[in-house]
Amino acid sequence: MGLPFKLYPSAPISGDKLMVIYNKGILLDGLNKDIYLRFGFGKVDLVEIVYECKMIKKNSEYIMVIPTLINGF
Questions:
Q1: Strands (E), 1-73
Q2: Which of 27, 35, 48, 64 has the fewest CB atoms within 10 Å, measured from its CB?
Q3: Cα–Cα distance measured from residue 69 to residue 9, given in angstroms and rounded to the nearest whole number
């Protein structure tokens, strides 16, 4: 069983726009609902800044585009 989301590009570098696509999983039960993406920036063991943004529904997927600030994160 794979992850319920995809990331493009899979290895982002600083300044890239990271596209997160949620396209399978328990939240996609056919109901019209809002899905929020919670993400943060910082070190692996210490997230310094946390955001929560509403994902955009397009067809049967939910999409969010976020900037990357640090290589690989």
A1: 5-8, 17-22, 36-43, 46-54, 56-58, 61-67
A2: 48
A3: 14
